[in-house]
Amino acid sequence: MDTKVSHVCGSCGGPSEARIQGGTKGVYCTQCDWAVVTTYSSEIQRDRTLYEVTISGGDFRDKRQIKAISEIFGVNFLAARALLGTSSGAVLKGRAAEIFDVRHALVVAGIPHEIVPYFKY
Questions:
Q1: Residue-by-residue DSSP string for the chain
Q2: Fewer C-beta neighbours within 10 Å, C or N terminus of the chain?
């Protein structure tokens, strides 16, 4: 069964296709410049939940982890190393789109962390 929806251009009558490009969603003609578009916000961009990330470990001697913490918290090398060395764990709060990037950086650097509430992205 073909589930692809076909569209016809409102200008030239040629084939058109539905696309999402960044913050725009619409139908675009494949032969001319005709398009019907609207703004588009993904689910993660619409999520207004305030998430809290707690760094629950890490190695203050690991330069890769120190660099990740430095970039995430916007602090210098020494401050980032101190954040990794604290036993209570560093905390960062933010919306879903921000936390998505933070979680990715933590996972890549191998830094243990927790996100509350549950983060589905």
A1: ---PPPEE-TTT--EEEEEEETTEEEEEESSSS-EEEEE---HHHH----EEEEE----TT-HHHHHHHHHHHT--HHHHHHHHH-SS--EEEE-HHHHHHHHHHHHHHT--EEEES----
A2: N
Does the bond joining 112 to the residue before it have cis omega, within 30 degrees of 0?
A: no
Other CB atoms closer than 10 Å to residue 41's CB: what's the count? 11
The token pair at 19 is 């696309």
Residue whose entry in the numeric block shows the structure tokens 């401050």: 79
pTM (2 decimals)? 0.66
Q: Are 30 and 18 in contact (CB under 8 A)?
A: no
Query: For every one of its 121 residues, what pLDDT tens digit does the chain have, with 9 covering 90 and above?
Result: 434 556 789 899 999 999 988 888 999 999 998 999 998 888 999 999 999 999 988 999 999 999 999 999 999 999 999 999 876 678 999 999 999 999 999 999 999 999 999 999 9
